[in-house]
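User: I've been trying to design a sequence by hand for this structure and keep getting stuck. Would you show me what you'd pick, starting by listing the structure so we're on the same page?

Assistant: Good idea, let's start from the same input. This is the structure you sent:
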């Protein structure tokens, strides 16, 4: 079941479904969690940031925070 971020989450929605909807709506992928580097854009300037295992874990949790709070990127 898909859970678009612009509508309330149905009680039957699984966390995985919410995460997948969040990633899809923001142009992210599950594969991005495992990339060795992440492209970051700040104030219109893009640069590459290392993506070590600790950051990967943090980003996964951070994305779930977006799903739970319904707060956009």
């Amino acid at each position: 079941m898909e859970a678009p971020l612009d509508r309330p989450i149905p009680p039957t929605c699984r966390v995985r479904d919410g995460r997948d909807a969040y990633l899809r709506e923001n142009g992210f992928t599950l594969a991005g969690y495992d990339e060795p580097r992440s492209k970051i854009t700040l104030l219109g300037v893009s640069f590459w940031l290392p993506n070590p295992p600790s950051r990967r874990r943090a980003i996964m949790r951070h994305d779930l925070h977006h799903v739970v709070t319904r707060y956009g990127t």
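That's my pick for every position. To get oriented when you compare it with your attempt: The chain has two helices and two strands. The radius of gyration is 13 Å.
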